[in-house]
Amino acid sequence: MSKDLQARYVLERLFDTVVSRKDASPSLSHSARLMARGRNKIAQKFGEEAVECVIEAVNGDRDALISESADVLYHLVVMWVDAGVKPSDVWAELERREGTSGIEEKASRPKHTP
């Protein structure tokens, strides 16, 4: 199995684990605790982890970047579960974008007015 497929399956297994803990006791499951605190708290934790990831990238600390990246992915998966997004939804969107330049893809998005 390719490393890309292994990574995809690891994320899907993590997703399945978080789903299985959604209704668990918050005293027994960190995932359940996060979801019990609500979407705003989940988003806040994801943002905190993303900032920590960026800091480690800027600092050039490879090992810390790897660790923080894992935290970012975990909190992203918790956010997906809470919002009803499945990994296959994200994979389909990535496949839709495949072969399209980032500039073209961004230009094709609907314009949002404040």
TrEMBL record:
<keyword id="KW-0378">Hydrolase</keyword>
<keyword id="KW-0028">Amino-acid biosynthesis</keyword>
<protein>
    <recommendedName>
        <fullName>Phosphoribosyl-ATP pyrophosphatase</fullName>
        <ecNumber>3.6.1.31</ecNumber>
    </recommendedName>
</protein>
<keyword id="KW-0547">Nucleotide-binding</keyword>
<keyword id="KW-0963">Cytoplasm</keyword>
<keyword id="KW-0067">ATP-binding</keyword>
<dbReference type="InterPro" id="IPR008179">
    <property type="entry name" value="HisE"/>
</dbReference>
<comment type="pathway">
    <text>Amino-acid biosynthesis; L-histidine biosynthesis; L-histidine from 5-phospho-alpha-D-ribose 1-diphosphate: step 2/9.</text>
</comment>
<dbReference type="InterPro" id="IPR021130">
    <property type="entry name" value="PRib-ATP_PPHydrolase-like"/>
</dbReference>
<keyword id="KW-0368">Histidine biosynthesis</keyword>
<comment type="similarity">
    <text>Belongs to the PRA-PH family.</text>
</comment>
<dbReference type="Pfam" id="PF01503">
    <property type="entry name" value="PRA-PH"/>
</dbReference>
